[in-house]
Amino acid sequence: MGRECGYLALVSAITSGAELCLIPEVPYQLDRYEARFKKELQEGRGYFLAVVSEGIDQPSQEIAKWFEKKIGIESRVTVLGHVQRGGNPTTRDRLMAYRFVHYGIDALLAGKKESIICYNNGFFNTKSITEVAGKRYQLDSTLIELFFQNRT
Amino acid sequence: MIDTPQGNIAILCSGGDVSGMNPAIKHFVEYTLQKGMQPYFIYDGYEGLIDGKVMKATYGDVHGIIPYGGTKIRSARSKRFMQEKYRNIAKENLDKHGMVLISWLYLVEMGAFEGLISFIKSMV
């Protein structure tokens, strides 16, 4: 999920404690992980979790094979998508949904007919549809740094 | 299009579905009823809007749906909605069903935006 935006994959990687995360915003070379991953295996790491975003051209199967061939660990690919979409909404999902709909109806009743309800930095606001459409969401650079510093 | 709170209002889910749509649908029904509006569901996203899948929504439709993922009113990606011809049909369907919308709400994945902009421009 996420199309060409790596937000979901990055946040998933951080919060699931993944060792590898591939997102469209950050160029990668798998070989640069090889020495460190092998060392970590020798030093007690039991498994690796790799999160590969939608929008990465390389098939996930190839990345799994890379783990098997170069790192020497059995690997499996799990494709999320329907599993994820069909998952139970978390408490946060429910609260956000409630608020989005509530503010949407309020905006309509206030006469804002071409609005999108947006959530930015902890606040809800309305933007016109033309302000939002066709613009690419820029992934928070501090979030990228949080995960990727000293890794590649 | 009318501006009074007594109007009809519809919700649809476009693009891929996602967890949280059901809680949104539930609150949509309850909040619009509270505001004196008549809520409607449009099933199957824009595809359903083109095909006239418009149904009145009641409390009974939304009780107990919060814990479930996806969306009870289903979502769809619609290639037809990208064409003006089908957007016109969609608009006719809204009118035909007495759907004098105040406007309408939807939960979106980015995919459907281009058709949507043209559609909104035609309605406002």
Task: Record keyword descriptors for this entry.
heterodimer, A: 152 residues, alpha+beta, two-stranded parallel ribbon, two-stranded antiparallel sheet, 7 helices, 4 strands, elongated, B: 124 residues, alpha/beta, 5-stranded mixed β-sheet, 5 helices
Tally the helices of chain B. 5
Query: In terms of quaternary structure, what is this?
Result: heterodimer
The major β-sheet of chain A equals: 2 strands, parallel
Distance between the termini of chain B: 8 Å
Q: Which of globular, elongated, flat, extended, rod-shaped describes the shape of chain B? A: globular
Helix and strand pattern of chain A: HEHEHHHEEHH
Termini distance of chain A? 24 Å
- Identify low-pLDDT runs of chain A: none
Tally the beta strands of chain B: 5
Q: Taking Cα atoms only, what radius of gyration of chain A do you get, to the nearest Å?
A: 19 Å
Shape descriptor of chain A reads elongated
Work out the strand percent of chain B. 15-25%
Number of strands of chain A: 4
Major interchain interface with per-chain residue totals? A-B, 29 and 36 residues
Helix content of chain A: 40-55%
Overview of the molecule:
The complex is a heterodimer of chains A (152) and B (124). Chain A contains 7 helices and 4 strands, in the order αβαβαααββαα. In chain A, the strands form 2 sheets. Chain A has a two-stranded parallel sheet. Chain A has a two-stranded antiparallel ribbon with strand order 3-4. In chain A, 45% of the residues lie in helices and 12% in strands. Chain A has helices at residues 7-16, 31-42, 60-71, 82-85, 91-109, 129-132, 141-148, and strands at 20-22, 50-52, 115-120, 123-128. Chain B is globular and about 40 Å long. In chain B, strands 1, 2, 3, 4 and 5 form a 5-stranded mixed β-sheet that branches. In chain B, helix 2 (45-51) crosses helix 4 (84-96) and helix 4 crosses helix 5 (113-123). Chain B is an alpha/beta fold. In chain B, 40% of the residues lie in helices and 19% in strands. At the A-B interface, helix 5 and helix 6 of A face helix 1, strand 5 and helix 5 of B.
